# Entry
Amino acid sequence: MIDPNLLDILVCPVSKAPLIYDEQRAELKCKASGLAYPVRDGIPVMLEEEARTLNDDELRAL
# Structure
Protein backbone atom coordinates (compact mmCIF):
# COMPACT_ATOMS: atom_id res chain seq x y z
CA MET A 1 0.00 0.00 0.00
CA ILE A 2 1.14 3.52 -0.80
CA ASP A 3 0.58 6.40 1.59
CA PRO A 4 -2.11 8.60 -0.06
CA ASN A 5 -0.14 11.74 0.87
CA LEU A 6 2.89 10.39 -0.98
CA LEU A 7 0.80 9.50 -4.01
CA ASP A 8 -0.48 13.10 -4.10
CA ILE A 9 3.02 14.49 -4.58
CA LEU A 10 4.64 11.80 -6.76
CA VAL A 11 4.80 12.40 -10.51
CA CYS A 12 6.30 10.46 -13.37
CA PRO A 13 10.00 11.39 -13.68
CA VAL A 14 9.72 11.23 -17.49
CA SER A 15 6.49 13.14 -18.23
CA LYS A 16 5.92 14.91 -14.88
CA ALA A 17 2.29 13.69 -15.09
CA PRO A 18 0.35 12.26 -12.11
CA LEU A 19 0.56 8.56 -11.34
CA ILE A 20 -2.13 5.95 -10.77
CA TYR A 21 -1.50 3.25 -8.16
CA ASP A 22 -2.28 -0.31 -9.22
CA GLU A 23 -2.45 -2.23 -5.96
CA GLN A 24 -2.81 -5.65 -7.63
CA ARG A 25 0.42 -5.28 -9.61
CA ALA A 26 2.17 -3.07 -7.02
CA GLU A 27 2.96 -0.44 -9.64
CA LEU A 28 2.57 3.27 -10.22
CA LYS A 29 1.31 3.81 -13.78
CA CYS A 30 1.61 6.88 -15.95
CA LYS A 31 -0.75 7.31 -18.89
CA ALA A 32 1.29 10.16 -20.39
CA SER A 33 4.59 8.26 -20.63
CA GLY A 34 3.13 4.76 -20.88
CA LEU A 35 5.38 3.53 -18.08
CA ALA A 36 4.72 1.55 -14.89
CA TYR A 37 7.09 1.94 -11.95
CA PRO A 38 7.41 -0.90 -9.43
CA VAL A 39 6.62 -0.52 -5.76
CA ARG A 40 8.87 -2.75 -3.67
CA ASP A 41 8.22 -3.21 0.04
CA GLY A 42 5.98 -0.12 -0.07
CA ILE A 43 8.70 2.03 -1.67
CA PRO A 44 8.16 3.38 -5.19
CA VAL A 45 11.15 2.81 -7.48
CA MET A 46 10.97 5.95 -9.63
CA LEU A 47 13.80 5.15 -12.04
CA GLU A 48 13.08 5.06 -15.76
CA GLU A 49 15.36 2.05 -16.22
CA GLU A 50 13.32 0.10 -13.63
CA ALA A 51 9.97 0.92 -15.28
CA ARG A 52 8.18 -1.34 -17.70
CA THR A 53 6.31 -0.18 -20.77
CA LEU A 54 2.53 -0.50 -20.60
CA ASN A 55 0.86 -2.34 -23.45
CA ASP A 56 -2.02 -0.85 -25.47
CA ASP A 57 -4.73 -2.60 -23.44
CA GLU A 58 -3.26 -1.33 -20.17
CA LEU A 59 -3.06 2.22 -21.50
CA ARG A 60 -6.70 2.14 -22.63
CA ALA A 61 -7.75 0.93 -19.17
CA LEU A 62 -6.18 3.95 -17.42
In short: The longest strand covers residues 35-40. The helical segments are 4-9, 56-61. The chain has a mean pLDDT of 96. The beta strands are 20-22, 27-30, 35-40, 43-44, 52-53.
